[in-house]
Amino acid sequence: MKLYAIVCEAVARESYRAASVSPHAVTIAVKDFGLHNTPDNLRAAIQEEIDRASATGKYDHILLGYGLCSRGTAELVARNIPLVIPRAHDCITLFLGSKERYQTEFSGHPGTYYYSAGWVERKEGEVDQGGFTIVQDAARDERLKEYIEKYGEENAVFLMEQESQWLSHYNRAAFIDMGLGDVDYYRAFTQQVAREHGWSYQEIPGDFRLVDMLYNGNWPNDEFLIVQPGQRTMEDVTAGIISAE
User: Residues 176, 96: contact at Cβ < 8 Å?
Assistant: First the structure.
């Protein structure tokens, strides 16, 4: 088969690795991690890529290296090529290998913030040869400056406090080790985040099972949704997570 994969930057390394050993011919398009901040923009970017790949007539299936992702992959339309998407809430499921393991982790440790190679490199920080920096600190300072200019210093401080309240829900930083990239730096980054927030640290072995299944063309219905031409994806509040109509 000829497969066209549309993937988030967060799973870029895992996708390239899986594609390299797939028996199929795979073309990969990587989309910006930042699109997750606005699910509507994420949906629009993926749909544009779907339309572009569909128009070529070159591919048998279009793969989505995403989960439901805050409904960012809901309401996507398959054109003339079927879409294949994992039944997952987000990419953490892809790193853990199954939605059952995802549920076990989240039920046993609900206050966990998960990190992987892609999350460190593409979202939370930059890994450089010889060290790393936390990008989120610079972004926070820039946002505070913007708020002060718009709303005054007192209101700006209040807004920043409100935005940071989500941190109180977390008490553990977990690094999911997929065995790719510069693992020592990703580990050190996650450990530093844990120290700064007073969280515990844990390292979790990753599992390529779902990612490999996606690229190998092994798509059982209970783990993957195949969206036929003309169908639209939609959120499914049952264990199926995502469905088509």
Answer: yes
What token pair was written down for 221?
């219905």
C-alpha span between 95 and 23 (Å, rounded): 21
Amino acid at residue number 142: E
Structure tokens at 147: 């708020």
Instruction: Look up the pTM and report it.
Output: 0.84
Average pLDDT over residues 16-24: 97
Per-residue burial over 66-85, b if 16 or more Cβ lie within 10 Å, else e, is bbbbeebbbebbbbebbbbb
